[in-house]
Amino acid sequence: MPVSEAEVRLAVAAARTVVVKVGSSSLTQPSGHLDVGKLSALAAALSAAVGQGARVVLVSSGAIAAGFGPLGFDSRPTDVATQQATAAVGQGLLMAQYEMAFGRFGVRVGQILITAEDTIRAVQYRNVQRTLGRLLELGVVPIVNENDSLASNEIRFGDNDRLSALVANIVRADALVLLTDVDALYTAPPSQPGSRRIGYVPDVIAALDDVTVGGSASGVGTGGMVTKLEAARVAAVSGIPTVLTCASNAGPALMGDPVGTAFAPVKHRGSSRRLWIGFAANPRGTLVADEGASRAVRGGRASLLSAGVLEVRGEFSAGDPVWIDDESGEHLARGLAGFDSEEIPQMLGRTTVQLKRFLGDEYAHPLVHRDNLVLV
Ligand SMILES: Nc1ncnc2c1ncn2[C@@H]1O[C@H](COP(=O)(O)OP(=O)(O)O)[C@@H](O)[C@H]1O
Ligand SMILES: N[C@@H](CCC(=O)OP(=O)(O)O)C(=O)O
What does CATH list as the number for 5-275? Predict the structure, then answer.
């Protein structure tokens, strides 16, 4: 586990598999239209890394930014339906440019569009993992974006920062590089007088207390620095180092030069699927655990049984993420529900033996299995 900045930089330079995320603001002109020059420069830097043997996954935003100009809008649309339609137009334009730009270096690209919803379940998760793995084996640079045109509003990432950290987990990346329109993390939004550049963050969780982060200032970006730090945190707890810098520093960042901000990993890798449950999507409902069940869940190795659940809130399907709260309303854990919300009221308070006797074998299972549960 690297501890000094030099070791973190070295780990990034030596990474065999690297996920690079580029934000909308780094691919567009001030007018909002796609900036083909910036996109080509990025493709050149990533192709050089591929030429040196790296396996590169590019998580690229920019579908909405690329689509609104050609559709005749003056600025990024704000309503969901128009954003989704704009992304459908822009995503094709974006990929056409990437194909051409990487093609100049003989590098092939492939498009992967992900929704939070269809990757939260184990089968789809493994599907994404297998396809990305195969693309990398074939020497292709997968270009990933959220499937904006189909993502449902309640369960979308919105920004691509957290998505990139999860993709880094899925492909078991050795490094994550976040490219944006600011050269590094600052102690406060760079527009604030007196804000200072931070070159190295040894512990991202502790750093969250010392840094003032703001939203996007660009008009095309989405999450600002908040979601980038969240991505760096997810990567860190997965054992993955992160470098955050501006897109024009992509080449030096990948070579381990001291540009931008480097974040050290804070822990050895956990299970990527459990991280996915913890961070991928917003819970759709809540299961309220009684005192005994809360204690068992807090203990870390227990499933949530219906005998210890007092109440179900919200509407969800089996497999959806839910909160597990204690009676005072405090969040204890996130987990994937084992049943649809409408099936649960008849199960509440019943033991496994009672469930079997009164409702049948198919109900004699935990409401949330411990393998699908992550403490918060
Ligand atoms: N503490 C901070 N340090 C650096 N940038 C910050 C900070 N707080 C807020 N920001 C803003 O975050 C912006 C980057 O986020 P965003 O516009 O969403 O980019 P992207 O499109 O690359 O995701 C920067 O341009 C900057 O204005
Ligand atoms: N998936 C969206 C990303 C939205 C967005 O602006 O993200 P980001 O620039 O990474 O903050 C798109 O391609 O337009």
Answer: 3.40.1160.10
Class of domain 281-375 as given by CATH: mainly beta
Task: Tell me the CA–centroid distance for residue 244 and ligand 1, in Å.
Answer: 11
Band of pLDDT at residue 295, cut at 50, 70 and 90: very high
Cα(170) to centroid of ligand 2, in Å? 20
Closest CA to 117 of 81, 91, 92, 153: 153
Does residue 223 have a known ligand-binding role? yes
pLDDT in tens, 312-324: 999 988 777 899 9
| 149 exposure class (CB count in 10 Å sphere: 0-12, 13-18, 19+) | middle
Residues of the chain with CATH 2.30.130.10: 281-375
Range of lowest pLDDT (20-24, 88-92, 224-228, 254-258): 224-228
Range 315-321, long-range pairs (CB < 8 A, 24+ positions): 315/284, 315/285, 315/341, 315/342, 316/284, 316/285, 316/340, 316/341, 317/341, 319/120, 319/121, 320/120, 320/283, 320/284, 320/285, 321/120, 321/277, 321/280, 321/281, 321/282, 321/283, 321/284
Confirm if 285 and 315 have CB atoms less than 8 A apart: yes
When pLDDT is cut at 50, 70 and 90, the band that residue 211 belongs to is confident
**Residue 225 assigned to a binding site:** yes
Question: Looking at the chain, which residues constitute the CATH 3.40.1160.10 domain(s)?
Answer: 5-275
Q: How confident is the model over 86-128, as pLDDT tens digits? A: 999 999 999 999 999 999 999 999 999 998 766 666 677 888 9
Residues whose CB falls within 8 Å of the CB of residue 271, separated by 6 or more in sequence, listed in order: none
Atom of ligand 1 nearest to the CA of 25: 21
pTM score of the predicted model: 0.79
